[in-house]
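Case study 2.
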Amino acid sequence: MNIVLISTTDMKGGRADLRSRMLQSLVESQVTLNNDRMALEFLLQNCSSEHANSGETPLPSFVRPVSMEGRVPLSSARNILLRRLAGNGAIPPDGIVAFPDDDCWYPPGFLTHVAELFSRDPSLDFWFCRYSSRPSVASFAAGAAVIARTKDVVRNASSNTIFLRGRVVNAIGEFDEELGVGTPLGGAEDLDYALRARRVARKVAFCNASLVGHRDKQPEIRARYYMSSLVVLARHARTGASKSFLRSIAVGLYLTLRRELSIRKFAEALTRAFESYKRARGEVLRPFHKLTAPFDKLA
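Prediction:
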């Protein structure tokens, strides 16, 4: 089975140690993959082609680097690689595609377990787990995969933890370039991608265990990504995420009362979310317009 990993890094971003940790975890993963083949499509941002080919930054043999001068938002970076792969017909329909960040890592043997899951179940199109700063492959047995519910996707699916069969990636295409780090909304491009994948996947499974390494969630910055998440949930409210959408509104009110989120930002989030809902539905939703009208001036 082919495993295609799509990632990007800022060569001038001061993350060399994190990037090295991620690459080393992939080197260790390759040892146990047996007949499964792994490739990392790696966009090196703020990196000239001369520097990329100079040998100053040695990369493992499974890495396929693409360099670019300057920097683009995260969703755009992934799309550059997705377009390149699609143009070459290099996303195998029955293979596995994942989107690890340059600061995540896989415990030894993890990718082997993932490949076995997809090999054993030809109908499995989308599998995901949780992440933490102390991941453990031993948790695979303790946290057996179950059929995922929408709320599982909303609360746990991230770019570091989703694994998709190639046919799903070929079907849903690119990330939304209005979302993600480096855009005005600043995040939730992976949530949008996961919810789109859920709609076309034949089987979606979730392992409620921390199997991927990444820094732990930081509650103190949750307000930063609130608006982007609410906009995405509004977009998918009519296709299974309505409860999560309403819950997110309540969370926003809670954050506002705690002064983690300003009234202005909460109002702007509501306005943008309901606009997103209306665009997804394709018509004006009058009750929501009346609900957000008092906040229009604040936003």
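Residues 263-281 form the longest helix (19 residues).
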